[in-house]
Amino acid sequence: MERDLICRDLGIIDYTETWERMKQFTQTRTKDDADEIWLLEHPSLFTQGQAGKEEHLLAPGDIPVIQVDRGGQVTYHGPGQLVAYVMVDLKRLGIGVRDLVSVLENAVVGTLVQNSIKAYPKPDAPGVYVDERKIASLGLRVRRGCSFHGLALNVDMDLTPFNRINPCGYQGLQMVDMKRLNKDAILSNVKVQLANQLAEQLGYSYPAIQQGWK
Question: Which CATH code for domain 5-211?
Fold first, then answer.
């Protein structure tokens, strides 16, 4: 593919600001604009997707809850979790939403393989799992034939807030992160690995990662 893929490292950034920028980018992009991947972490919060049910918020307490326009149920974001927002023109790439879900899952599985972690997706429960524990969650929205939102990969984080919800709407679902499975996992390295895996799965060459919005 001749077009470039723009990949941005945004560090730790407010959820609402990022969400607004995603919507603006998707609403105003043209057929000539490059696809983008944003890599980042969020301060602690729960996000409730369009299918979300109040009963899955068990005890959010002092952690904010934001209702969002992605698919799926409730999940937690926090420092040490690598979030990848994937904004691609599906029609231009010749893929559908289900294909993009597979791209995201396969990119995570490939990243985990590079860290000596054996993982797998589930056909009936989007995301990536290790020994029935969930290590990555997915949630997408498509507008004007283009995707936004994306995936969250648990790298090295406090998992206890997941106990305050039914993650992704599943009671008793156990979560895990990479550090618990491989003590050598480092977020900065995983960021590059995931960016490269996503690019490869989408048919792009490996991207240079830009710092910030410009």
Answer: 3.30.930.10
Question: Which tokens hold the place of 77?
Answer: 């974001």
pTM equals 0.96
Query: For the chain, what are the domain ranges?
Result: 5-211
Which of 155, 168, 175, 185 is labelled catalytic?
168
Confirm whether 146 is a catalytic residue: no
User: Six-digit token pair at 150?
Assistant: 């994306």
149 is in an annotated binding site: no
138 among annotated binding-site residues: yes
The 3-state DSSP class for residue 134 equals strand
What pLDDT, on a 0 to 100 scale, did the predictor assign at position 1? Answer: 44
End-to-end CA distance of the chain: 23
What is the rounded CA–CA span in Å between residue 149 and residue 109?
19
Residue 187: half-sphere exposure toward Cβ, Cα within 13 Å:
19
